[in-house]
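Narrative summary of target 7.
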Amino acid sequence: MLNLVEAKSEQQVSGIPTPEELAGEELRRLRNARRWSQEEVARRMTAAGHTNWHQTTVGKTELATRPLRLNEAVALAGLFSVPVTQLIAPITLKPEEIQSELDTIEQRWAELQEQYRAAEAARAVAHTAAAEAEEAAAAAANELGRFRARLEYLNGLRSMFAGEPVDPETYAKITAAYAGGTGQGR
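Modeled conformation, tokenized:
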């Protein structure tokens, strides 16, 4: 049962036509250019030895809902007198369209390169700013710690001189500072 499930290919997800979609579109284009019906293509494929080809086979192949076998692609190419590669890599652009599309794509390429350079520069600035902010935050946290300790020390001294009770931890810090001569008591 598992082998009946097919995952979507990267081409299907990205919007790039699959080889079967390209072949289906090219088959339809070639058929319409010759003004052949789907029945006519099926009849000719049957005459070429592909007895399982019917009008519905042609329709499903054109819609890329049916896989195209290699021997069938060769037979179709022969029917339309085109190279097999044209079925999966059709050349549908006219020479004048090629230059126009090249110009458009080259212009967009240049725009995208500029956008990329600008984004990279902004990222570098943001990275530097983030590093500087980290340093500033660390320095501020260090300074806050020193001031909190000094505040606790001074509040503890004030409470001691006023005869108020001081928690044992603060009392130990104050007496250690006096005994050690750290200068906090001076």
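Confidence is low (pLDDT under 50) at residues 1-7.
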